[in-house]
Amino acid sequence: MEPADLLDQHGIDPAGLEAAPVPPARQETLTRIQEVPPRPCAVCGDPVATARIVRFPDAGSRWVDLCWDHGMAVRPRSRVPETLEGILADLRAAAREAGLPGGSSLSFYSSFEAAARGRRNDEESR
Asked: What contacts 119, CB < 8 A, 6 or more positions away?
């Protein structure tokens, strides 16, 4: 879930959030979440555990301060492929994009033994 979706789900108007600097400075973010007393979560009022700057189309850049639970609700999900085939497809695409020779023929070894022999999957039958 995106922070804007979370705020919308709870009926929170981004215009009511504090305006944020552009570009954000890491130190400002750290200072914000370490303040004593802690800032309240924009959603529930609990002490903040994270702060981020979100750009809203109608309100501009705003600080979105969130407690642990709401921060985890909008945490970016991993986009790493879950299968070897998916990983290999990403590696091939990156190699092609970088202009590396042989990028389209990247492949995995079928086993540790095959790697020790220096033969990839497509070389096993040769």
From this structure: 109, 126
